[in-house]
Amino acid sequence: MPRVGRVVLPNYPHHVVQRGHNRQVVFAAEEDYQRYVRDLRELKDAFGIKIYAYCLMTNHVHLLVSPGNSVAGLGQLMKALAARATRYRNRLEGRTGTLWEGRYKSSVVQTETYLLACCRYIELNPVRACMVADAADYPWSSYNARIGLVPDSDWLDIDACFSILGDTTLKRRENYKAFVKQSVSSDETKIIREALQRGQLTGTARFIEEVERIAGVRIERRGQGRPRLDGGI
């Protein structure tokens, strides 16, 4: 069974990060963030992509997305998002050249075990970076939309795993808020971060075996745990 580089699978969530070229600033003003979110909303349907979470940082973007039956949709989405942002900034600043790194990082995520944990990881980026004290204080992530604090937020997709958070929309929002606020283990953060950086899978050993069978490739293993879903749920 051959080894593999990047794994992209249809109908599985993928944790994706794209950084500015040489870590340069890609969002310098409020309009930059607004345009990217508008493009994300528009292009998700064009390429058949589900969006579960996002966070726009100063020099990079985190997304939790799922391509449909065509895995090409993920690459097409990232290419189109990058091209639109680059054209806008180049036109605004009277410059040429690339805005983003040429290759984004991605990790296939085990839905039932890690999708919620990855949403939390993504939306807590500004808190870990000491930019805000609470995820709700940061306007450029999916968190406030997910907990119902902003209007017109129904464009975010809801995986079936969100149903474990409650029987009603209100209860799911309240329990998701509690889930994000609970203490996150360093092991969980390390697993998610390293899986993304190394292009590995975010999931259990059984999940890795499942993906190996689907993709017909051998995937590097590493020690992994299971995220906590207690503390208010």
Automatic annotation (TrEMBL):
InterPro entries assigned: Transposase_17 (IPR002686), Transposase_17_sf (IPR036515)
Among Gene3D superfamilies, the record links this protein to:
Transposase IS200-like
In this record, what's one Pfam family? Answer: Y1_Tnp
Transposase IS200-like domain boundaries: 9-125
Domain of life the protein comes from: Bacteria
Q: Which PANTHER family match?
A: TRANSPOSASE IS200-LIKE DOMAIN-CONTAINING PROTEIN (PTHR34322:SF2), TRANSPOSASE, Y1_TNP DOMAIN-CONTAINING (PTHR34322)
Write the protein's name. Transposase
**Species of origin:** Pseudomonas paralactis
**Lineage, broadest ranks:** Bacteria, Pseudomonadati, Pseudomonadota, Gammaproteobacteria, Pseudomonadales
